[in-house]
Amino acid sequence: MISMKIFSGTSNRPLAEKIAKALNLNLSEIELHIFPDGEKRVRILDKVVDQHTVVVQPTSTPADQNYMELFFIVDALKRSGAKSVTAVVPYLGYQRQDHIFREGEGVSLEVVRRTLEAVGVNRLIGFDFHTIRVPELFKIPVSHLTALPLFTEKIKKERWTGDDTMLIAPDKGGIRRIKILSDMLNGMPYGSINKSRDLATGEVTAEKIDVEKGIKKRALIVDDLISSGGTIVTATNLLLKKGVHDIYVFTTHPVFSDAACEVLQKSAAHKVYATDTIYVPPQKEFRKLRTLSVARMVAKEIKTPWI
Ligand code: R5P
Fold first, then answer.
1. Paired residues of 222 in beta bridges
2. Disulfide: which of 80, 103, 237, 292 matches 150 by Cβ 3.0-4.6 Å?
3. Given the residues 5, 18, 78, 195, the one annotated as active site
4. pLDDT at 39
5. What is the pLDDT of residues 230-283, one digit of tens each?
6. Is residue 199 classed exposed, middle or buried when 0-12, 13-18 and 19+ CB atoms within 10 A define those classes?
7. Is the pTM of this model over 0.85?
8. What is the number of helices (H) and of strands (E) in the chain?
9. Distance CA 118, CA 47 (A)
10. C-alpha 255 – ligand 1 centre gap (Å)
């Protein structure tokens, strides 16, 4: 039995339970009271003096509330005598705001980093950060895990490994990830789409696909996250125009805002594979969605010595 206590916030308890199970632990209990005005009070119900502790809390929608809850849990653990706090934040909210895009903006990710460190997080574990710069922004150790091994496993299992298949990054920002995946799949051909987004309206457009070895019959689109679904739909429509009809989508973070689920269900993609870094409630599930769990990878990382 590992000497540590693992806790869950409310944003993804099913994942926290799976991680605890993979560690042969039970989740320790937190009392969470919500006042009529929406403010939360957190109380740790287990003894944590001199214990290493872990909190699982992706900061997906509603990001602000989930962050506040995480801050309060970490603070309560520290005040209760925990030796260390590892924050497992499989989806790190605000990570896309990592620099100033337009004059007058702030850098939200920097605010998040400072607050996580200030409340006492000693180590952060996350998945497929939007930018590889995230670990170097933090002063605490950060484990940057990736869902690519899960995608590789699935692609091999489905035998989508022949000459007829290509990997597609739906924008230039995804090329690094797609190249790594291509290497993991023995050099599978890959390509990328020239996407542009209107920063004021959010509208996504794309006209061109750059492929290294010609267009293939099957396309596996890989993206770090799906929010509105606009990027994926633009990519699938462009692929259809190029004569590609056998399309599958792989994404680490199912952010699924607005009408994303309907949009994806109606898209030309046959299936959408997403991990459980973010909890997808039953009312958001759609027929084409398949879930791959990151729980075992997180459990392995938690057990890796870091001090
Ligand atoms: C963009 O750089 C990201 O990698 C995703 O492609 C994007 O954030 C997805 O957003 P949406 O689903 O709203 O197009």
1. 250
2. 292
3. 195
4. 96
5. 999 999 999 999 999 999 999 999 999 989 999 999 999 999 999 999 999 999
6. exposed
7. yes
8. 9, 14
9. 23
10. 10
